[in-house]
Design a protein that fits this description.
This protein is an alpha/beta fold. Helix content is 34%, strand content 18%. Strands 5-4-3-6-7-9-8 form a 7-stranded mixed beta sheet, with helices on both faces. Strands 1-2 form a two-stranded antiparallel sheet. Helix 1 crosses helix 2, helix 3 crosses helix 4 and helix 8 runs parallel beside helix 9.
């Protein structure tokens, strides 16, 4: 029987529901204690505008829930919000009907390699993970090499042509059950900076003791691209048709709900069947668009 998902809650299978358990997290990663503070109502939290605090929290979460003991990212790279990333994994897992030996392609894995970490350790999925940035691939490989439970679970591929998404990554012999992607959703650096400031202000609302800095991690390819999310999704949709027989479900996060209908319109013209999965995380609603060319 499928578990009911209440509005505002993470997926029932997501281990990050509720407030962070700092007692457990600090026990597993003692250096996190340095960054733990109290919010105005006396609850333990961290300063989310402090990049070092966020990275340390992520390291504790990854160690506690995914048994990955060595994880780090270079300065200036995107530090992912793990509960939301895990939600994406749990929602698309429902598309597979408990299929075994699942093969997943992660487009734009980033230096953090977070989707392969969560997917491989939660469901045993095997990943091919691509990125256009050599530094991201280098750091992701360092994470894999430093953790025995990731070895033989993740293969990394450098996308050598920044104009391509699947082309050059999916070979003739490849077959994937799922692809996943968190597209760059801003069209410029200026837009990305403004959005990040709003996010940090909201996270730290009401806490006057928290410094007003910017926790801005993310290289150009991770956060913005010409044309923003809509153009990226259009390109992805068109390229996906070239690999219709090699992939069962293509999926992508969609940040801006106004980009859903235009993308579905492109896909339906190409002969795809589409589904929109809504993920409600507190006041925020994220969406996953899933499509297939299978009859």
């Amino acid at each position: 029987m499928k578990k009911e998902i209440k509005k505002g809650e993470l997926h029932p299978n997501n281990p990050h529901k509720g407030r962070y358990n700092f007692e457990v997290l600090v026990k597993n990663l003692p250096e996190l204690k340095t960054f733990v503070i109290k919010n105005p109502v006396g609850e333990e939290t961290i300063d989310f505008s402090d990049n070092n605090a966020v990275i340390c929290l992520n390291r504790a979460l990854i160690k506690t829930y995914y048994n990955v003991n060595s994880w780090d990212i270079p300065a200036g790279f995107l530090c992912p919000p793990i509960p939301g990333r895990a939600d994406y994994i749990h929602y698309i897992a429902e598309l597979l009907s408990k299929k075994k030996d699942v093969r997943v392609l992660d487009i734009g894995t980033g230096a953090n390699c977070i989707y392969p970490i969560i997917g491989s350790q939660t469901y045993g999925w095997r990943y091919t993970a691509s990125d256009i940035d050599p530094k991201s691939i280098e750091n992701a490989q360092r994470i894999i090499d430093s953790n025995d439970n990731l070895k033989n679970k993740v293969d990394l591929k450098l996308q050598k042509d920044k104009n391509n998404i699947f082309i050059g990554i999916i070979k003739d012999e490849d077959r994937f059950d799922l692809t996943m992607c968190n597209p760059p959703f801003h069209s410029s650096l200026e837009d990305a900076l403004k959005a990040n400031k709003r996010k940090v202000d909201n996270l730290n609302k009401g806490n006057k003791d928290i410094k007003k800095g910017l926790n801005f991690g993310g290289q150009k390819a991770e956060l913005w691209c010409p044309g923003g999310e809509r153009l990226f999704l259009k390109k992805m949709a068109k390229e996906s048709a070239l690999f219709a027989t090699q992939v069962y479900y293509f999926t992508s996060l969609i940040s801006n709900k106004d980009n859903i209908k235009p993308t579905i319109k492109v896909l339906e013209k190409l002969g795809a069947k589409c589904r929109v999965l809504e993920m409600s995380q507190g006041q925020k609603i994220s969406r996953v668009l899933a499509w297939t060319f299978k009859k």
